[in-house]
Each structure stands twice: as C-alpha cells, then as structure tokens.
Amino acid sequence: MAVEDRATRTARKRYDRNAALYDFMESGVENSRFREWRRLLWSKVEGTRILEVGVGTGKNLPYYPAGAEITAIDFSPRMLERARERAAREGVKVDLREMDVQALEFEDNTFDTVAATTVFCSVPDPVRGLREVERVCKPGGKVILIEHVLSANVVLAALMNLANPLAVRMSGANINRRTVENVRRSGLVVEKVTDLWLGIFKMIEARKTGPDRQTAPGGP
Q: For position 215, what pLDDT does the model report?
C-alpha cells in the first residue's frame, strides 16, 4: 500500500498535473547534460534484475542494459501513462508498476541494482524511501542515483533554501536536499560520489552490506 499521508498525496498531484508538459519543461537540461549522465548511470548497473525508482515519463528507457530484467515504478499514474506510451513506441521491455518508493511492494533482497535519477528530491520522506530501497536490494547489491543537492557554497545554499518553497510548488522537487547524507542514514554504504555539475548535481554510488562485505567509510 502507498504511504497516503498528506505530503505524498500533494506530491502525486503535482506530478500528475505536470505529466503532459514534463518533457518539454526539462528539455533544456535534458539536451545539454542529462542524456550523458543517464548513459553514465546505466553503464554502472550490476546484475540482471534491476529496479528503477521514479521512472517518470520514461526518459531512462533508451539506456536500459540489454538482457536485463527491469522493473520500473512511479507513484504518479499520469507520469506512468507517459512511460508506458514511450516503452511501446520504442519497443522497450519493462515491467511498469504504480508504486510508492516509501512503501515498496517487493520482497526483501529482490534486486541486484536499484537506480534513480532526480527522485529523492521529491519523495516526501526521502530516508524512509531509501530504507525501502536498501531493504529490496540484495546483500552486496548496488544503489546508484543521480540527484541534485544543496550546494556546499554558503551563499548559493542560502539562495537555494530561499527559492525552495517556490521550486516545490512549481515542480514538486526540493532543491535543497542533503541526499548523500540521507543515503548514509538509510543504512546503505556510500562508495563513491561524483560531482557532475557545480557541486549541485551528483552521482551517488552505494551498496547494501552483505555477509561477504565489510562496512566501509562513505565517499565525500
């Protein structure tokens, strides 16, 4: 069952509202940077059973690895509609399901890799969502995220905090999350953090500890 608190219902409504224009709204950053970042993320997945969290309109579909068994979820029915249309149009085989990352309907230790792009900026309780990701990932499995985060620059961070309420109201995305810290709080071990752009966009590679792995210090 989805976590039907007020914040989750509000976030879902925002993404349903924006679904028809979502690709157009993000076309600038998609064409200039995100295609390269998506290709990089999907080149790093491991194993054959993969979960994509927050599939949205399906922008990652062209980068799915051949031969993998991919399940992709989103909590917005209208975003998921767009993803289904894209999968059919592009001939991509994927199991698309309406589901909330804060309450995943999968058994423990199911997936080799869990991947997401700019999702945990929008999840109402990001640590709860990341703990669910940790739960459904196999021991020793990989979690790989591209996220925008609060800048380490004091002046820029202050501006981001100031602009955040408007950003959330317009797009549903928080621009001031500390997602690297949230990943660590979830119980995942952060192995590497790659700065993609100005310290605001980062790729986070983490792993679920298993019997053959020792917990190690996280990345920067």
A: 41
